[in-house]
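Data availability (excerpt). The following record was deposited with the supplementary files.
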Amino acid sequence: MNKLLFAVAEFLSRPPGFYVMIIAMAVSTALVPFGLTNVVTYALSVAAIIITGVVLIQGYRDTAAIHAKLDEIIVALNETRNDVVGLEHADPKEIKARLAQVEAEAVELSNGSG
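Predicted structure:
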């Protein structure tokens, strides 16, 4: 199911998919004079849900790629601590605590070198 969702999101996030959605919405809107207002409302609601899903899936993919790249940088640098790799999977409270710790260390380092 994930492969199907990602394939649909990939198609709809490109110009041809966008054109298909525009044509579908135009056809739905053209049906209003024929008394098919319910069909148009339904079709446009489904289109809005699909577009929202595409945005969420693309956002997930972008975020996952950014995390992978950052993890690669962290692992590649000998001076870094590898305990932050995979932190995005931790509990939100743990992430917040770790962020506060890193920010405090950054302030200490900037005060010590300034």
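Summary of structural features: The CA atoms of residues 52 and 104 lie 38 Å apart.
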